[in-house]
Amino acid sequence: MDHRYIASALPHHDARKVTSIIGSLDDRVPTLAIDGVELDIDEPARKAVIELLRQLASGTAVTIGPVDELLTTSQAAEILGVSDTYVRRLADSGQLTIEMRGTHRRFRLEDLVRHRERFQA
C-alpha cells in the first residue's frame, strides 16, 4: 500500500491567508486544532505542520511519506525532479543509496531528501 500523499500548492487566496498567519507567529509554535478540537501534539509535530503549510503557501507541491518507506525508481525521479534514467545512473554510480528487491532498485525517502538538499545548497 502506498503511504505517500502529494499535496498541491494552495490557491492564491488561501496562500495569502496562511502566509499572513504564519508571518504573525514570529518564532512561536502555535497550538493546532482541527474542526475546533485542539490537537495535543508535541512541538516538532506542530513545527512540521507549520512547515507543510509554509511550503504549500509558497506555491510548492509537497510529498508526504514515511521516512523508512521504499520507493520505486519512478517515485524517486518524481521527488528529485529528474528522469528515471538519471535516477538509475545515480544509483548505479553509487551517488544514491539503493536496496535491491530482486532485480528492482528501491530508494529510501530520507536518502532522496538528503541527496536533494546536498545539490540545492
From TrEMBL:
Domain of life of the native organism: Bacteria
InterPro entries: DNA-bd_dom_put_sf (IPR009061), HTH_17 (IPR041657), SinI_DNA-bd (IPR010093)
Ranges of residues in domain Helix-turn-helix: 70-117
Protein name as annotated: Helix-turn-helix domain-containing protein
